[in-house]
Amino acid sequence: MATLKPTQRHSVLGLIKEIFNWYPSNYPAAERKLLFKLDLSILIFACLCFFVKFLDQTNISNAYVSGLKEDFGLYGNELNYFNVCYYVAYVVFQIPGMLLMSRPRLSRWLLPTLEVLWGLCTFAQSRVTNVHQLYACRFLVGMLEAPVFAGTHFILGSWYSGPELFKRAGTWFICNPLGSMISGYLQAAAYTNLSGVGGMEGWRWLFIIDGIFTLPIALIGFIVFPGVPDSPKPFYFTDGDIALAKERLERAKIRKPGKLDLSVLKRTLRRWHIWVFVFCYICMIIASYPSSYMNLWLKAEGYSVVQINQLPTVIYAINIVASWLGTTLAAIYPSWIIYSIATASMVFSSICMIIWNIPKPLKFVAWYLFGMAGCESPILYSTVNTIVKGDSEERALILGAMMTFGYSFYIWTPLVVFPTAGPNGAPRWRIGWPVALTFYVLLWVGFIIAVLMHRRE
After folding, report:
1. What is the reported pLDDT for 8?
2. Phi, psi at residue 75, to the nearest 5°?
3. 315, exposed or middle or buried, with CB in 10 Å at 0-12, 13-18, 19+?
4. Which contacts of 268-274 are long-range, i.e. CB under 8 A and separated by 24 or more positions?
5. Which helix (H) or strand (E) element contains residue 366?
6. How far apart are the C-alpha atoms of 307 and 322, rounded to whole Å?
7. Distance CA 397, CA 379 (A)
8. List of residues 6+ apart from 380 with CB closer than 8 A
9. What is the C-alpha to C-alpha distance for residues 391 and 396, in angstroms, rounded to an integer?
10. Which residues 6+ apart lie within 8 Å of 322 measured at CB?
11. Which residues contact residue 377 at a Cβ distance below 8 angstroms, ignoring those fewer than 6 apart?
12. Per-residue pLDDT tens over the stretch 351-398
């Protein structure tokens, strides 16, 4: 089990081989072939789906600093309100979406259908004429995107286990920062090349471009996404593939979906898993909020619109490497070691932001080091999939509850701790940065507790 294994000794060459060893030679040929099919179907669609989710989720921030603020006269906390609308819907529809995802007949079609609908809402944002219409669009996008993150983790944990799961979860998660990074470049390009085209501002074109990305990927999902092993069989799987997949689940002691009733809630609440993992994710959500708003600091420093959109992409590039490499290393070495290294980077950057009056090059380093947090979420969710693999319904409920309660703090915490305007507002956040530091430490403590409690069991 990836969270409990003893430290392994590898030469540098051996470590590199292990990092890229996705199809172990000791696996039978049929199993390696099955893994390859799963990667081509689940992983490719999940990566594309996650990429456009974060493209569509984060474009509001890029649009805000690229003309939306001035066009609509937004000089208060409207950016926070956009996020509140999104995350209220995200929270409310999280657990229902996850429970639907656990149903075999629905899980194959749910994500592609939702992606078509939120793609249409993304197009609609390009035509809004006032801020209230934009609030409504953000609510709808949040509602439709709700099951994507935890739902994909659930699907990955329904087909893969152990090191396979960690490596693929880390690879999939890089599409989070990749979507955010590409959004910055797209907005810079739209602002430079499309402002005024068709009588529309550059920020409106960003929503159109994002919608153009979204719809074709949704259509691909209808063809290739397999759902869970008990879902209707897609055309590229043979009966032997499905039988082998179910045999793999039995070997890994991953229980297939069972009856969905009140007993699921009762047994979940009696166990420690949901309490510790929900606590960890609440800490992660609160701590990570300010690190994604480097663009507000750049705007306050007087950088150009193009620079404001492009310079923060370095954070996402580091996030990509940390997500893939950190999560892969957590499949090779004890995950608490990797978590501790990432936490140390977050603590250093947070302390720099608390001090604030530091040389500008050091402040750039501090902003960019926040990218090291990229491995924390996929390691945490892969740990949940590993520890709770024996109860499919409990696993779905925990994953949904982590998102629900985590992002319920995202709704109100920014208004209180990370306001856009005011004496404690962005990007200085005199109260916010100490709070972020505190919750980064608490996240680390919660993760260590989870590892120790599972080891005791």
Report:
1. 56
2. -120, 20
3. buried
4. 268/391, 268/393, 268/394, 268/397, 268/398, 271/394, 272/453, 273/384, 273/387, 273/388, 273/394, 273/398, 274/394, 274/397, 274/398, 274/401
5. helix 360-369
6. 24
7. 18
8. 277, 280, 281, 284, 447
9. 9
10. 342, 371, 372, 373, 374, 375
11. 173, 176, 284
12. 999 999 999 999 999 999 999 999 999 999 999 999 998 888 898 889
The closest of 304, 289, 421, 297 to 67, measured between CA atoms, is: 304
Task: Give dist(CA 436, CA 417) in Å, integer.
Answer: 9
Kindly state the tokens that stand for 356.
């604030």
Q: Which residue's entry shows tokens 């007949």?
A: 105
- Cα separation, 110 vs 116, in Å, equals 10
Cα separation, 151 vs 288, in Å, equals 21
Measured distance CA(220)–CA(138) in Å, rounded: 25
Computed on alpha carbons and rounded to an integer, the radius of gyration of the chain in Å comes to: 22
Lowest mean pLDDT among 51-60, 145-154, 220-229, 330-339: 51-60
When the pLDDT of each residue in the chain is averaged and rounded to a whole number, the result is: 88
* pLDDT tens digits, 107-164: 999 999 999 999 999 999 999 989 999 999 999 999 999 998 889 989 999 999 888 9
106 to each of 53, 92, 100, how far by Cα in Å? 20, 20, 7
- How far CA 439 is from CA of 48, 66, 105, 408, 425, in Å, comes to 31, 31, 39, 16, 19
E strand or H helix at 432, and its extent? helix 432-456
CB-CB contact of 348 with 34 (8 Å) = no
Span 150-164, pLDDT tens digits: 899 899 999 998 889
**Distance, CA of 374 to CA of 288 (rounded, Å):** 10
For residues 236 and 249, give the distance between their C-alpha atoms in angstroms, rounded to a whole number: 20
